[in-house]
Design brief:
The complex is a heterodimer. Chain A has one domain: HPr-like (Histidine-containing Protein, Chain: A, 2-Layer Sandwich). Chain A is α+β, with helices and mostly antiparallel strands. Chain A has a five-stranded antiparallel β-sheet with strand order 1-2-5-3-4, with helices on one face. In chain A, α1 runs antiparallel to α3. Chain B is of the alpha/beta class. Chain B has one domain: Rossmann fold, CATH 3.40.50.510. Chain B is about 45% helix and about 15% strand. Chain B is built from five helices and four strands. Chain B has a four-stranded parallel β-sheet, with helices on both faces. In chain B, β3, α3 and β4 form a beta-alpha-beta unit. In chain B, α1 packs parallel to α4 and α4 packs antiparallel against α5. Classes of the chains: A alpha+beta, B alpha/beta. Chains A and B meet through α1 and α2 of A and α1 and α4 of B.
């Protein structure tokens, strides 16, 4: 997990635990974590990036366990948002 | 928390969608099934829909998901008596819409946000 700050957005990387796909309940838990922030947040894999508050978009990413996710946020809470989301990702079960 | 009602011609389908959405959303979201006709077979049952909406309503609003055809017409008929706008039909596919709506409700989303999450299923692909 690492974070870098560049105006106006903040990015971080987080890797899904082995064996935990970003589907079903893990995806729902991720959306609930993203919804705690009012500003825009995104999650990306490879060259795809989707709204981190959209369950259906996240399911369509099809991210498997062990995949590195790119987390990005904008707005006043951007730093806190990507930190919280990265923490959420690495603790998904 | 916004409640969810799943209306289907099939009682089994409605129950199954409620179970799936409930597993994703967790126990805090009130998700109610209104499936099947008056005689227990395939069909729609207006009193069942009314009762399910009443059970799902805690004041924060109710998003209704319905399968097709007369389910939609039945819901619209029932909603004529809910003119406050606090109970609304999502124009969305049943399974994807219900799951997305329930998860958005579990995150504390407003009725507008819950309906938007459900209706996103029309444009977001599966791949």
């Amino acid at each position: 997990m690492s974070a870098s700050s560049e105006s106006p957005g903040v990015e971080a990387q987080a890797t899904l635990p082995e064996g935990v796909d970003l589907h079903a309940r893990p995806a729902a838990n991720f959306v609930r974590a993203a919804m705690k922030f009012s500003g825009p947040v995104w999650v990306g894999v490879g060259d795809r990036e989707v709204d981190a508050k959209s369950l259906l978009s996240i399911l369509a990413l099809g991210a498997k366990g062990g995949t590195q996710l790119r987390l990005r946020a904008e707005g006043e809470q951007a730093g806190a948002a990507v930190t919280a989301l990265a923490d959420c990702v690495v603790n998904l079960r | 928390m916004v409640g969810i009602v799943v209306v289907s011609h099939s009682a089994e389908l409605a129950r199954g969608v409620v179970a799936l959405a409930g597993q994703m959303a967790g126990p805090e979201v009130q998700i109610e099934a209104a499936g099947g006709g008056p005689n227990g077979g395939l069909g729609t049952n207006e009193p069942l829909v009314r009762e399910a909406i009443a059970r799902a309503q805690d004041g924060q609003g109710v998003a209704v998901l319905a399968d097709l055809g007369s389910s939609i017409l039945t819901v619209l008929l029932v909603l004529e008596d809910h003119e406050d706008g606090n109970t609304r039909l999502a124009d969305a596919p049943l399974v994807e819409g219900a799951v997305a709506a329930a998860v958005m409700a579990s995150a504390g989303g407003s009725l507008d946000q819950v309906l938007a999450a459900a209706q996103e299923a029309r444009s977001v692909g599966k791949l």
